[in-house]
Design a protein that fits this description.
Elements lengths: L15 E4 L5 H11 L4 E6 L3 H12 L5 E5 L5 H13 L6 E4 L14 H29 L2 E6 L3 H4 L5 H21 L4 E6 L14 H10 L8 H12 L10 E2 L8
Parallel strand pairs: 1-2, 1-4, 2-3, 4-5, 5-6, 6-7
Pfam families: adh_short
Organism: Paenibacillus polygoni
InterPro entries: NAD(P)-bd_dom_sf, Sc_DH/Rdtase_CS, SDR, SDR_fam
Length: 256
């Protein structure tokens, strides 16, 4: 008898999670959150080898299987090699967190075609390629979670961040459409769209700009990475299977 979509509940200790861009910031916090309950975690990075290893060492303290893997997510060939490595080590993900991304700050009139293509490739194409690679396994077992890390700017847009906002708006639309496509197969697709988070991505802002942001946010502060990782973890749980196609924005009341 064919298993009903969404009826399968994979045990936590048998669940494998792939977090892209997990060597620092929100991605590292997400990896550690999943590891803390004993899930198997794959920590993806591109160039930050030592930082990824440090995150892995912290994750190993919790006792689950931990693996690091490097790949350029704009390259289908490198993603295929990454997928083969995960298959070889029996670490094919049941949960995919598309977190890897880069920021861009500046007037649209100053954006070069090369900059546009690069940011689009990392933020949007990378999400597409990773999802396309790993969703067939989820569909096959009729269970899976895909969680895309977006941004508040993908919802509201931001002056001087048109390129970045466009990529995150694309991720939001991608999320909503794919959720409808995969729902009959028991796979949910959601996006977490944080407001300002205290990570390295804020390094382009000076202290005066950060203080202005704090004043604009009703909570009066930036989010901590752990606050974002807790939401990602919740969406990945088996019991969260009826939450699908949603763009959830933890932003301290900044955008309501």
């Amino acid at each position: 008898m064919e298993r009903e979509a969404g009826s399968f509940m994979k045990p936590i200790l048998d669940t494998t999670v792939l977090v892209t861009g997990a060597s620092r910031g929100i991605g590292a916090a997400i990896a550690k959150r999943f590891a803390s309950v004993g899930m198997n975690v794959v920590i993806h990075y591109m160039n930050s080898h030592e930082a990824a290893n440090e995150v892995a060492r912290q994750c190993m303290d919790f006792g689950g299987r931990i693996m690091t893997v490097s790949a350029d997510l704009t390259s289908k060939e490198q993603i295929e090699r990454m997928a083969q490595k995960l298959k070889d080590y029996d670490m094919i993900p049941d949960v995919l967190v598309n977190n890897a991304g880069i920021s861009h700050y500046g007037l649209l009139s100053d954006v070069s075609e090369e900059e546009w293509d690069h940011v689009m490739a990392v933020n949007l194409k990378g999400t597409f390629l990773c999802t396309q690679m790993f969703m067939p396994g989820m569909v096959s077992q009729r269970y899976g979670r895909i969680i895309n890390v977006s941004s508040i700017w993908g919802i509201s847009g931001a002056s001087c961040e048109v390129l970045y906002s466009a990529t995150k708006g694309g991720i939001n639309a991608f999320t909503k459409a794919l959720a409808k496509e995969l729902a009959p197969s028991g796979v949910t697709v959601n996006a977490v769209a944080p407001g300002a988070v205290d990570t390295d991505m804020m390094s382009s802002f000076d202290e005066e700009e950060i203080q202005t942001l704090r004043q604009e946010i009703p909570a009066g502060r930036l989010a901590k990475p752990d606050e974002i990782s807790s939401l990602v973890y919740f969406l990945a749980l088996p019991e969260s299977g009826y939450i699908n196609g949603q763009i959830i924005s933890p932003n301290g009341g900044w955008l309501t």
